[in-house]
Specification:
About 45% of the residues are buried. With about 575 residues, this protein is mainly β. The protein is globular, with a radius of gyration of 26 Å.
Length: about 575
């Protein structure tokens, strides 16, 4: 484990370090103000699809109060909800929130649950039947609390007067009015799935007849049929525009794709003539990227609300069918006509810049108790020591103190020098994390300082761009469960979108695994500049050498490149922190 790993540091700059016996906590006492015109919105970084290691077909994702929540078709037997600080759900909290009772019309084939927060409550809409697909209907759960991982009460069927076959339902809100949108049959024969809409009087009650909005009549929608498919409806809002994005073609085929209905400005959602249907799919398979059957999506914002993202499932093989469907994500752009552009689905090897504001865990979503504030749900795959960047303000005019407690461990007293009113100051600490979920508590003990947010500026190597003979390898001893291995001089690794609060000299620490080479060396450069070469200490298998160096980083996005200059070795992660003299 990390607590037993030998640490090797080169050119390590730590001007003031206080070590608390038994706590493993290091305090970097010199805070810094942000002296740059470039707005700081978190340390950035990248991630790669998929969003989870398990199959996550039909993903439904919501962001609320500092967390992402995902539900999906979980084997068709129950409803699971996952909770994550970021769009990466590999280390998410996971809980089955509802099991169906036996021998009911909704005991089997539980498909495509949709989680939504409506009128101050959590709802999960899902399709289910009694084991016979012809009996699929829509049902709803209502949350018993404000916790999406809490308990739910079954609220019965969501139905219109026709009571026909129905799946993939969810609520759309337009000008403070609710509507239910779903995929259904016209009659009782599985010939085609259409898109229907109906008004609602509340989140559990359809209050009028269903209206047909779309039939699968386009050639691309018919691929793999019959039956022909319009399903997996999702809702996208942009300014005053409303869009229904749906999946067409057989979900069992690589041709599964996304189409769109756009509501005309000020049109009645119940008027079919008010919707404009796109002739061509907005997202479809990309054989070169090895992405097949992209579909059944949802939409979610970035943590700061400035971006909209699409989350969809896809497979990696043309013949995968309903197997290997995993959630993926990418950012949405908009064209001059105000329509969404999804682009091509991205290959699993492509690093994607994280959603804007990712990794900034704000006090608004923390837990307060008296003078203390706790940041929970901080995941780690293994025991490790992580840097924590603290955003704070202290307008008292005096130097104040605060205690830091990690996982009920020993207290560390840190000082908070005064700041100008309204000015955010940054300081770093280094704290021990255990495998699993961790929490960091700040006890201000009546001090008039404010903890605004925290970050963990660690960049996992498996999320970086790998060039030449570099490859990703799963490793249970690694910080994020995987490593990037550089095999020879043709290999390199690029950490892109690396942000710091201000321009200056930072300590960058690389966690390196080297069990085979006595004289291995790496080189590092920043933003295409001159390379500096560092030796790598040989260790036992799966143990870490920490190679640290001073690098000048700029406010805004930086690129830190790692090159193999001799031997073969692996990179686990990169930490970035600073101690101001």
């Amino acid at each position: 484990m990390r607590s037993k790993m030998k640490k090797f540091r080169l050119s390590l700059v730590i001007v003031l370090i206080i070590v608390i016996a038994g706590g493993g906590i290091y305090l970097l006492e010199h805070p810094m103000e942000s002296k740059t015109d470039v707005p700081y919105n978190g340390h950035g970084g990248t991630f790669k699809n998929t969003l989870a290691e398990i199959d996550t077909p039909d993903p439904s994702v919501v962001y609320r109060n500092g967390y992402y929540y995902m539900t999906f078709t979980h084997g068709g037997t129950d409803i699971m909800v996952m909770k994550s600080r970021t769009l990466d759900f590999r280390q998410a909290e996971r809980k089955v929130v509802w099991y169906p009772p036996a021998d009911t019309p909704y005991s089997a084939e539980i498909w495509a649950p949709e989680i939504q927060y409506l009128q101050g409550k959590w709802y999960i809409y899902f399709a289910a039947d009694n084991g016979d697909n012809e009996n699929h209907r829509m049902f709803a759960l209502e949350g018993d609390s404000d916790d999406p991982l809490g308990t739910y009460t079954f609220k019965g069927q969501i139905k219109d007067d026709s009571n026909k076959w129905a799946i993939d339902g969810l609520v759309i809100e337009v000008k403070e009015k609710l509507y239910f949108v779903w995929s259904g049959w016209e009659g009782d024969v599985n010939a085609a799935q259409n898109t229907y809409i109906a008004p609602m009087s509340d989140p559990l009650t359809i209050s009028g007849p269903r209206v047909l909005l779309s039939e699968p009549l386009l050639n691309w929608e018919k691929a793999g049929g019959p039956p022909y498919i319009n399903e997996g409806q999702s809702i996208l809002h942009k300014d005053d525009r409303v869009f229904i994005v749906y999946s067409g073609a057989g979900s069992w085929t690589p041709y599964y794709s996304l189409g769109m209905l756009a509501l005309k400005p000020d049109a009645n959602p119940l008027d079919p003539e008010g919707w404009v249907k796109s002739e061509q799919p907005l997202l479809s398979m990309d054989e070169e990227a090895e992405v097949y059957g992209p579909g059944h999506n949802s939409f979610v914002t970035s943590p700061d609300g400035s971006e909209q993202w699409i989350v969809y499932h896809a497979t990696s093989g043309a013949a995968d069918g309903w197997n290997n469907r995993k959630a993926r994500a990418q950012a949405i752009s908009w064209n001059e006509e105000g329509l969404p552009v999804f682009g091509n689905p991205l290959a699993l090897s492509v690093p994607i810049e994280v959603p804007s504001g990712t990794g900034v865990f704000r006090a608004e979503s923390a837990v307060r108790a008296g003078d203390s504030i706790t940041f929970p749900s901080l995941p780690s795959t293994v025991e490790t020591t992580v840097p924590v960047l603290i955003h704070y303000s202290n307008a008292s005019g005096n130097t104040l103190s605060a205690n830091i407690i990690v996982n009920d461990g020993p207290k560390l007293t840190m000082t908070l020098p005064p700041t100008d009113a309204g000015k955010v100051v940054y300081t770093y600490v280094s704290v021990p994390f255990t495998a699993g979920m961790n929490e960091v508590t700040f006890d201000l003990s009546g001090q008039k300082a404010e903890i605004i947010a925290i970050e963990i500026p660690r960049f996992e190597a498996e999320a970086a761009a790998m060039e030449g003979n570099s490859e990703l390898e799963e490793n249970p001893f690694a910080s994020g469960g995987a490593i990037a291995t550089l095999h020879d001089s043709e290999s390199s690794l690029q950490f892109t979108n690396v942000h710091v609060p201000h321009s200056g000299v930072y300590t960058v620490t690389l966690a390196v695994m080297n069990s085979t080479q006595v004289d291995a060396k790496l080189a590092i450069s920043v933003n295409g500049g001159k390379q500096a070469v560092y030796p790598i200490e040989q260790q036992e298998r799966n143990q870490i050498s920490e190679v640290s160096m001073e690098l000048k980083l700029l406010a805004g996005a930086n690129e830190i490149s790692i090159f193999d200059r001799q031997g073969s070795f692996s990179i686990d992660y990169m930490d970035v922190w600073q101690d101001r003299k």
